[in-house]
Design a protein that fits this description.
Blueprint lengths: L7 E6 L6 E3 L6 E3 L5 H4 L9 E6 L11 H14 L5 E5 L5 H11 E2 L5 E4 L12 H13 L1 E2 L2 E2 L4 E5 L2 E4 L4 E2 L8 E2 L7 E3 L3 E3 L13 E2 L7 E5 L6 H8 L6 E6 L9 H12 L3 E6 L12 H9 L2 E2 L5 H14 L3 H8 L10
Parallel strand pairs: 1-4, 1-5, 5-7, 7-10, 17-18, 18-19, 19-20
Antiparallel strand pairs: 2-3, 6-16, 8-9, 10-11, 11-14, 12-13, 14-15
Helix pairs in contact: 3-8, 5-6
């Protein structure tokens, strides 16, 4: 049990590069033993925090992330919510933006920090970025002002920057600066001090945490490209059981104007499928009707996603389809910021 005389942080290790150490004998990478956390990172003792940990068993590679994992992670946070001041989730970087996005929707009325972090190199490697990412995340998860958490939302801490979780995308597989938040400023930057951009951080509402555990996977992503064929488009739109399709369009929401393409989308919408227009760009917003190449989309009922990322669009649709049955209400909520995931 946490010691309530000092700040307490729960570290949840799901898997991923950050939690690996090189075995001195064999040279192979083995999971980090968090029972020896202070031995491996002795500087943590300077914080005077109580840091406890939970590890998934088995550990999960980020490429294997799925809704059942997200529900398990949300349940761990729910079970321990009143016991800890903040949470740090160690996670593989490849799908971290998806996990951060879906957690933001699942954890309604979140009033404590949930900081996701990872690394490009294992913790046990000399040049690892994991050590700084981990230390920064612990400090941010414990940071308060007037006994109130400074960052009471789901965030991603990577390479000395803190981002809103549902605003991020992984954009580089090799550089330490792996994530980008093209449409929203960093919540904090770590240098000599951690500087918080408080005007960008969600305000706490001090309501009771409500955890949503129903997610509906009945969605698909249709990424447009020049020369896309009717066979490809119709195969996705007619996939069995699909309730919604994320349409990754060009620029500010533009798409081909071919009659067959518009007709295919219209038929899908008439059959009850929600089409959610999200730009392929890492920065900028969908503006249906700004150009003639998006005018038809609006006329047939395609829903504009503004500046939402594809990762957040996936998470939001799974959340809405899992928790609401009225199609008109789902469409309305798709165009409404729920957790700071879009700007209108």
């Amino acid at each position: 049990m946490p010691n309530r005389f000092k700040k307490s942080i729960l570290v949840i290790y799901t898997g991923g590069t950050i939690g690996m150490m090189k075995d001195k004998r064999s040279g192979t990478l083995l999971p980090f033993n968090f029972d020896h956390l202070y031995k491996h990172i002795p500087i943590l003792e300077n914080f005077d925090y109580q840091i406890n940990h939970i590890s998934f068993d088995p550990l999960i590679d980020s490429s294997d992330m799925n809704p059942s994992f997200w529900v398990e992670l949300a349940c761990i946070i729910e079970k321990n919510y009143e016991l800890y001041d903040g949470f740090v989730v160690l996670h593989g970087s490849d799908t971290m933006a998806y996990t951060a996005s879906v957690l933001s929707f699942m954890l309604e009325n979140l009033n404590k920090p949930v900081v996701l972090t990872g690394s490009q190199l294992p913790m046990g490697v000399v040049r690892t970025d994991g050590r700084d990412n981990f230390i920064n995340s612990i400090e941010i998860a414990a940071a308060t002002e007037d006994d109130t958490p400074i960052v009471p939302e789901v965030s991603i801490c990577f390479e000395n920057k803190l981002y809103r979780g549902n605003r991020t995308s992984k954009h580089n597989a090799e550089h330490f600066e792996a994530f980008v938040s093209g449409n929203y400023p960093a919540l904090a930057k770590a240098g000599v001090y951690i500087r918080y951009k408080k005007t960008a951080i969600l305000n706490p509402n001090f309501k009771k945490l409500k955890v949503h555990k129903k997610l509906d996977q009945s969605i698909a992503i249709l990424k447009l490209y020049p020369g896309i064929s009717p066979q490809v488009v119709n195969a996705i739109l007619s996939a069995e059981g699909i309730k919604a399709v994320i349409l990754e369009t060009f620029g500010s929401g533009n798409a081909p104007t071919n009659a067959w393409f518009i007709e295919s989308l219209k038929n899908a919408i008439d059959n009850g499928i929600i089409i959610f227009n999200v730009t392929q760009c890492k920065g900028g917003s969908v503006e249906i009707g700004k150009y003639s190449t998006s005018m038809k989309l609006g006329e047939i009922g395609v829903i504009g996603g503004y500046d939402i990322t594809t990762e957040a669009a996936v998470a939001k649709l799974m959340f809405l389809l899992g928790n609401y049955t009225d199609k008109n209400q789902i469409i309305k909520l798709l165009q409404t910021p729920l957790r700071g995931e879009m700007t209108i």
